[in-house]
Amino acid sequence: MDLLENKVDLYLGMLPIHNEQLSYTMLADDKWSGIVPDTSPLYQPGLKEIEKFPYPLNLLKNEKYVLTTSQSGIRKQANEFLKHLDIKADVVMESQNISTAAALARKGMGLTFLPKSVLNNSELMDSYNIFYIETSIVRTRYFIAYSKEKTLSSVDLAMIDMAKELMKAYSDSI
Question: CATH classification of 2-29+140-173, choosing from 3.40.50.720, 3.40.50.2000, 3.40.190.10, 3.40.50.300?
Answer without folding.
Answer: 3.40.190.10
